């Protein structure tokens, strides 16, 4: 019996980042649990991250974005791995969302009177693996965790992806080798847990 299909999307532009290590460690954990895992590294894709005309006219998708869409549709579980920069996601990841998660693919309005769209990516669950330089409690209590809320509520759940779980690795700044090893262990454990879940 085939394992659960998981897509890991690395939103950090660098393949040498700690986020890349987290993505690889999560993927290894999920594969060890029997999942079929693909890793999409946004820093290696060739696409314009700017939605040049907003939603006024269609901007042709580059082949890498077409392939990314196919990978999302094939997945049962979608995992985003990225750092919080300035309270939100890196520009590369935001550009990917702007260009990829468009009407007709991620959501759709049936008519001009409809204010809340149909969710076209239902049937998939999600996970966020996020690094921060600030302590996690500070991000929640002082800032309100805007990056977590944006990705969970206004992107993934808006398009029908849910439930969405989070694995937060913080604070990354000044963390010791032992601390980083604990973060990697958390990612591996999340991968094993997600990989062992039967497809819905």
How would you explain this protein's 3D organization?
By secondary structure, the protein is of the alpha/beta class. The chain has one domain: Flavodoxin domain (Rossmann fold, 3-Layer(aba) Sandwich). It has six helices and seven strands, in the order E-H-E-H-E-H-E-E-E-H-H-E-H. Helix 1 links the parallel strand 1 and strand 2. Helix 1 runs parallel beside helix 6 (177-195). This is NADPH:quinone reductase. GO terms for molecular function: NAD(P)H dehydrogenase (quinone) activity.
Write the layout of secondary structure elements.
Layout: E1 5-10, H1 18-32, E2 36-41, H2 63-74, E3 77-83, H3 91-100, E4 107-108, E5 118-119, E6 125-131, H4 136-143, H5 146-156, E7 164-169, H6 177-195
Parallel strand pairs: 1-2, 1-3, 3-6, 6-7
Antiparallel strand pairs: 4-5
Helix pairs in contact: 1-6
The first-level CATH class is given as Alpha Beta
**Beta strand count:** 7
Number of domains: 1
- Main sheet record: 5 strands, parallel
The general outline is: globular
Beta-strand percent range: 15-25%
* Helix-strand string: EHEHEHEEEHHEH
Q: Helix coverage percent of residues?
A: 25-40%
Organism: Zavarzinia aquatilis
InterPro entries: Flavodoxin_fold, Flavoprotein-like_sf, NAD(P)H_dehydrogenase_qn
Protein name: NADPH:quinone reductase
Family: Belongs to the NAD(P)H dehydrogenase (quinone) family.
